[in-house]
Write a structure and sequence with these properties.
Length: 641
Amino acid sequence: MRFIKFNDEVVDSFAFMELIDLAKALTKDTEVEVKFGVQSYYHPVEKNIYVTHFWNHRPLKDKMYGLKTDVYLRSLGSYFDTDFTVMESFLKKVKQSPLQNFARQLFMMLEDQRLEDEIVRLRPGTKKAFEARRRMYRKYYETQLKANLDRSVYTDALFNGLYLLLNATSPLEELPPIEEKIDLVVPFLKQQLTRSFDAASTLDINDIVLETIEVLEEVLSKDLFSSYFILPELDLIEESSGLTFDDLKRKDGLSNDDVLKDAKEGDEDVHEDKLPTWHRETSKPTKSFLQFDLEHGTKTDILGEGTAREGDSHDQALGLVHGRSQQTSQNDYSELEADRLYEDTDEAAGKSSYGKENKYATALTKDILPVTVQDKQKYDTYKKEIITYQKKLKNIIQKMLEHKKQRPKTDYHYGRLSKKLVRLFTEENPRMFYKKEHPSSEIDAVFTLLVDCSASMFDKMEETKRGITLFHEALKSVLVPHEIIGFWEDTQDATETYQPNYFQHVIKFETSSQPSKGPEIVQLEPQEDNRDGFAIRHMTKRLQRRTEKQKFLIVFSDGEPAAFGYEQNGIVDTHEAVLEARKAGIECINIFLSNGEVEESVRKTIENIYGNYSIIVPDINELPDILFPLLKKLLQKSIIM
């Protein structure tokens, strides 16, 4: 399983998932997302928290301190305590300033300092992490200050020095000489920094920075060159059209503004008339149309019979005109499956029932071809290689079922009296009876085998099909319903708004126990990309419709989710899909296939996604030996005890 990559930087997927969970927990907002960026900031419109790659290439402890403090600052600070309307107003005021970049970054630096102090005060447990953050940043700015002084980049040197003064470890710390006219305003700048410690709001920071920039415009000849902080463009106040959201609402008032005092009592005289309507498809327009504006009248809360709508009780004049529809034979959705109805609702609300990373993923069915003689011959070869395992497993299960059938059932209030009468004297309400015979027990389970058919499986597919044959023949012999599905994403046809994902049902639930079924497995072949999270959610919905008590989803893959726009969040999305399946009562197990020694980082990532429910197969040739005990354990678990 690959680590996430951002600008050629490797991101630990487990740490990334931890940051996402932390951000959502602190903000109590499930829509908040964490992304990596050049600098850290929070975008309130997108609801994205950006953490910076500045913390990379450091000891793990320092790296996690840095990443977590980024999340603390944005989740506990920016999300709740930053006034973004003030920030947007500030951006407009400094837009024409020759020191616009300096002003923006100074604003962000002082605002972050204010938020940091407030977070540490409210949550003392974060103090250690923020101390580590300041230590690492101080070291960085000391280096930058020296470099900028050597290169005579005085504006950047001043900014570096201001950060060091703001986070000074001693009250005696001073700025080194920079340039004569800059040195003259240092006392004023120190005073402004001191004021920032008393700032109680974003508005206070706004006032301090505007005053500071007004003075510095007379001193600095160039704007800040480097980027140390990011103050993003938010567009909160006006859209590009110049209209606010309220401007887009129709709110024309009536010429009179009175309201009926009497409320609706239920005995009002309501008249219903047919009002002809017209549109461009109407062949014979009548003389009156349902198009009118109400400019005069008195507001009331009377509504038509049998209809209700959401809104203010006095927002229409006199009454409402309601239409009525009749049943159509064109598209009858009354029999539509429940999960499809919920999916449509989610899509209408701008959501996706398959996860936000799969909003544009589309499930398509790939038909299997008629079984050829070559398919049968190849499948017979697979069967011969696994027949020993299959027969052994069948005998074990049959013996368990027979034992289940014959074993007497104890602890009943009626039936045959047990010979063990001690419980009559030791228990208040003893169960002294047993039943010798009990109805035969069956295996109440269903299996879905989901096979990764991505291109990276090209050197593992043959052995994978051999292992799948063991599953199929063993489950078929004990009459356990199952399906085997290959999945992949079409790379060539994938776009930003359309990602076709194919599912090839080589074995279906309905026919899985038929003796002739099996050679279809041979048709599974490596294809292109794989969107694991989407495929797992798709199978979860199918299994939820099954009535069996035990439901198992076995995912065969080489652990590399990769698809269009899926590189950064594919691992996290797959992890979330696995959690959703388990919450639905489905045991999701991964069979990780490899052709050599598995790196520790890969093992860790697989564990991050599937937890302890993952079996790593370092040698694909050993797959049947590894699958046999797994299948045995799952079937034993499925027998109702």
